[in-house]
Amino acid sequence: MPIIRFVILFLLVATQALAAQVRVSDTDYRAYRALTLDTGLTVLLVHDERASKAAAALALPVGSLDDPDSQPGLAHYLEHMLFLGSESYPGAEEYQSFITRNGGQTNAATGYTSTTYMMEVDTPAFPEALRRMADTLARPRLDPVYADKERNAVNAEMESKKHSDGRRLAMLTLSTLNPAHPATRFTGGNLETLSDKPGSRLHDELVRFHHTWYSANLMKGVLYGPQSLDELERLARAELAVIPDRGAQVREPSVPPVTDGERGVIFGVRPVRETRSMTIEFVLPKKFDDPSTKPLQVAAAVLGTETDNSLVANLRGRGLVLGLSAGGDSTSLRNGVTMSLFLQLTEEGDRRRDEILATVFAYLDMLRSRGIGQEYVEQLGNMMSMEFRFAPLTSGFDYVAEAAGVMLRHPVEDVNYGPYRLDSYDAAAVGELVGMLTPANSRIFHVGPDQPTDREAFFYQTPYSVRPVAAADTARWAELGHGVKLALPDLNPFVPDDFSLVLRDGGKGPRKLADRPGLTVWQGLSQFRREPRAILMARLQSAHIASTLEQTAMQGVLLELWGQKQAGLRYQAQEAGLGLSLSGDEGIVIRIEGFSQHQADLLPRVLGFLNQEVTAEDFELARAEQLRSLANMEKQGPFGQAMGAMRGLLKVPSWDHRAVEGAVRGVTLDDLKTYMAAVRRDLRFTVFGFGNVTQGDVLAMADSVAPFIGPEAGKPAEAARILPAQGVVADYRRDSVLEDSALVEMFLDPAVGPESRSRLLLLEGLLSTRFYSRLRTEEQLGYVATSFPVMFAHGAGIGFGVQSPVAGTADLADRFESFYFKALTQLRGVSESEFESVRQGVLASLTKTPDTLDEEFGWYETDLRLGNAAFDGLQRLTAAVGTATLGEVVRAYETLVLGPGGTRVLVQIQGSRFSELGWAEKKGAVQTPRFEDFHRVMGMQRYRGL
After folding, report:
1. pLDDT exceeding 90 applies to what percent of the chain?
2. Whole-model pTM?
3. Contact assessment for residue 406 and residue 231, using Cβ atoms and an 8 Å cutoff
């Protein structure tokens, strides 16, 4: 009998470990195993022989939707409190410090119906890191002594996001659902909602929430690393067993997300930024979230496509919209899903909103009458299958965070495949879904500066109004839509069907294939990936593109116009697995990346814009949107404003958005035509094909740009970044219309090259956690508190930044200064083992096997831009990191941060809440109110691309 019991037990364990065969893509080389612990915790194990670190994540299907009515934001607050000590590791900083000392990172995220914790460390430290993580989740101290600090941290986080229009609209759409549904509550938490109340003590509720929901039977875990699957399984069974099975059960809300009172309604919403949009939302039954047939995604794919005869093509062709996106949310409500159409409007569209609604509802009527054909579902299925087969791999930290969340929604065997799975076309379900997309079921959100409002949303203070859809509305829409010509959208011409791979020829590194006046051509094969994908980059340069303020203004209008005229082409490419982007740094960069088959067809169509006639209507629309974009920079988050100013200060020449906005106002259509003619005269190209492309492929693509090369084109243009000057202190200031303040301070090294860059990378690695712990955790200055390396051309520096709802820039500067002096003592006390751990962390990030083509190409692109024909920038930096000493790093800190050895730059964004408190003042600081004022006191790094 004992032998039989042993055999049965052995078979049970083996079945638990092997029953689920994880489906993997063609490019996935990793080994997988799934198992379920005795506690009910499902764990996915991933062996990656190329991994330089090990990572883990644990997720549970519980989030803000499960907050008690008396404590909105409690799930988020618990996520913060969990990191502040556990039963076996009681110190508030023990978990974070251990992770950091061992070259790692950690994070957590709370959603409506999920919470995920993730960490990554050097492989030797992984067993203890996993033990600490499990103890943190199973037995947190939840010490009341830290309650106020973390309440303030949660409050600061919410304050930092308060003026994001996307977040404000998302919160408004949820808060105006059925008032009895838990999705309507304020989810993030702040000082008001997270507090003791009659019958509800915050700490008691916190402990109760943890004991109720943090149960192994609900959790999904992922362990990832270079260890064998057997070793990962041993760790999972040994370390995760501490998380108890409390028998928790998550239940759906007992009330529907909407009643008749919350559908068939129209909202007017005023945004923070100047933006005009419309969102048409439909709250639908949960049954449409079928993971195998995906009726929600099928309908969204047809409504959101941008091929000829699509809904957006109709509206864009009439000058009413700039873009349209369709999508669904299947996770926030738990007992329902939402389908949404988001339309970005032109100024004309803002005046003709009824025509837009009439067209949308007429299009939906057409879909109901004609149905969605099998060919659309087959195309969608082919694209999803194609994307899965050759899906770019994510690894380590990013993989475990995503996979744990996916396991909450899909069987473990579909952890990779689930989001791409489409087994068949459920025509009945799709037809039923489309049948529900009517005015009576709609929730229409009109967003714009002129919308009528009569109330404010809680916390975000979003002004809005609401009224029912009246019979007169539907009659008007029916009349306006009666004569609109509509048709089903064309299929996408860019969907690939050739996935063949080019032959390797043994060469390494990029090769120059052509070099003549006006054209340089490069080609390279990936050293790590064998897949039918490529990156095609074309850099367009001219002496007239952005050398002056006026040219910079016209470049912005040109890029906006280019983007508008080819929005449909860009979406079609994206839908078919081809990313297409235009950007304007050191010329104009066209970048096409994805499946290689149709890239050669796409590039000449993109360039064809240069031969199109620009009408007065096209010009005015592009100029208006560019002005709106520039004006909205004033209402970007203060930390984002400070980082944007930092980038402008480092680049030569450059002007801040206020100066560019003024110049754009003076641009005329004739000015733009003159500008484009000047650019065309000396327009030159650098073309680089990387990945699954042969030399012949790239040369053929290069031939397609030949007609656009200017008669006066020459060699690549020279570019510049600042060269820091010793002993200069510069002060850039800007008032903000938002409440929070932000301070970013940079210390820049006059020495350039890999040795300087390596020292500052290592210095930032030593200081990052110390800065965060001091200013964010201890002093509670704000949710955003970070250090970062500053890299510009061949130069380097270190930066520190905080966005604060409680301190102005003068106070922040004092706190920064205090940190700098205390950090010197800490740095002088750093052990060689801690320094070596930081070094190994930096080296691991530099030498890790690239997960994607883009990651591998990034270093080649940088070398190409900087004129490094050896393409060895990564190798030189890696070597410098390997030889830098702790003494050199400490001396760099003493010289640059505490001494006058480099350039010190303050970027002050003063929030309206602190406008009376004054600015930070530094002795001997040079006021640089404009970027060009700063450039005049700096040297110059000049370089010429290849």
Report:
1. 89
2. 0.91
3. no
